[in-house]
Every structure is written in structure tokens, then in C-alpha cells.
Amino acid sequence: MRLVEHVMGTAVSFDVRGREPDDPVAVRALADAVSFLHEVDAMFSTYRPGSAVSLLDRGEITPAECPPEVTEILELCAEASRLSGGYFTARPGGRLDPSAVVKGWAVERASRILRSAGLHDHCVNGGGDIQTSGSPAPGRPWRVGVAHPLRPGALAVVVCAGPGVSAVATSGTAERGPHILDPHTGRPATGLASITLAGESLTVADACATAAFAMGDAAREWVEGLPGLDAFAVTATGATWRTPGFPAAPPVLSPASPPVSSPALSTGPSGVGARGPGRC
């Protein structure tokens, strides 16, 4: 069964396998996951003047007066900044905006809600940042096609989910142009066209993808030193590189020859779609 919910400024797609559309357990779990995402949006939206993040940014409340989820997110942002040597920041352009952690964290939590209800085989796609669980069919992995940022309609790489790889996050310029700032210069990062990180936690992969994009050429060595994460990048000139453990399927030569047998769940702002079933 499938569901698309527009929340957090994007489309969040749910693909649950092995359940009928009217399965009461699945319907309830999806409703809980969607409700959670709307609660997250109400807390963290920088476009809502009454959100906790907006109030905190204006100094109208203190961190102690924020919901505990805000404290958790700010701690994750601080850790991402420390881990990346300052290339990750929760204050891009000077304004409090932890979105680079919030979306991945929220999608990962939504996936946990489904698993807690016994829906072990599913994929949640939050505007291109993807958390998978289980498999789309017996003996088949989830496959995630990453759009090429410089060649509209083409795929740059296909990621195979598997042990230790259930999350895929991409940062790039394909949809929004150069919008990720290098905190050390205050200018947009332009060394890469996109970078995709694959690992087990979407919270971690999403934050690290943002930091890695800001690093540009230095990202490769940094990601190679991160346990449990691997990367695939397209540079501004169209060249590509990947870390040794990146879980890529065989290359796709043409968008007319799709790597999997069923259509994409959705394609989000970062140009990623979850697909299944298919073999790597």
C-alpha cells in the first residue's frame, strides 16, 4: 500500500509491502506516522512565525522552554558541526534553521513508527531522503535511483540497500541551484554538483551529506573516515567519485533502461526515488 503526504514543505511517500490497502494495522500506523510528521513541521518550520524554532531564533523563548525534540535536534546539529569541523551549521546565513537534520530525523522516526506496528517491509521517501526497512519482495533489495544533477532524466547511480545500508541522502544543486553555504566563507559551495551518502541512519546520512557538500573536494577523505557511511559524488565538471564501500548497483547506461522493474515511489527535490523490487 502507498500513501503520499505533503508536509514539511515536501512530499513524503510511504510504500508498505505485504499489506492490503484496508489493513487496519497498516492504516493506523500510517496515520500515526503522518501525524508525527505534521507535529515536527509545527515545531521546526522556519516559515511559521509561531513554531518553536522561530520563537527560539527571535529570543522569545529559551531552549529550556522548547519541546524536548528541539533540544534533541540542536544537540544533533552541534554534534554534526563538531564532526565536520564546522562545515555543518544550524545557522546558515545567521538564522536558526536545523532543517538539514530535521528532515532525515523525522523520516527515520516515521519509519520506526511503522516498524513498531509490525510493518517491517517499507520505504519512506521524504523529498528524496530515503529510509528503507526490510525488502520490497522476498529475496529482493530496495534499490534507490539517484538522479544525475547535470543530465536531466538520467540516473547518476543506483544504490542497493542491504545490511548496514538502509538510508540514502543526497545534497546537490539539481533543483534549487547553489543553496548550501560553506560556513567558513559564507558563500555557496560550488565544488560538487551532488553528493549521496548511504548508511544505516537517515538522521546521520542527511546531516553528513549537507556537510560533505559544503566541503567540496575535501568531502571524499572526510567520508572515508566516517564509520558506517559511504559516498558517491558528481563534481561541478561532471566527473564522479565514490568511496570504496559505496553500495552501487551496476551502472545504468540510459534512463530508457531502468535498473528496476517497478516505477519510482517519487522524485523529491534532491532527485532521489526509491524503487523496488529489483536485483543488484
UniProtKB/TrEMBL annotation:
Disordered, as annotated region: 250-280
Keyword Transferase: yes
InterPro entries attached to this UniProt entry: ApbE (IPR024932), ApbE-like_sf (IPR003374)
Biased composition (Pro residues): 250-261
Source organism superkingdom: Bacteria
UniProt cofactor(s): Mg(2+)
Biased composition (Gly residues): 270-280
Enzyme type, top EC level: transferase
Molecular function terms, GO-annotated: metal ion binding; transferase activity
Key word Iron present: no
Annotated catalysed reactions: L-threonyl-[protein] + FAD = FMN-L-threonyl-[protein] + AMP + H(+)
UniProt keywords, alphabetically: FAD, Flavoprotein, Magnesium, Metal-binding, Transferase
EC number: 2.7.1.180
Name of the molecule in the record: FAD:protein FMN transferase
Annotated organism of origin: Microbispora oryzae
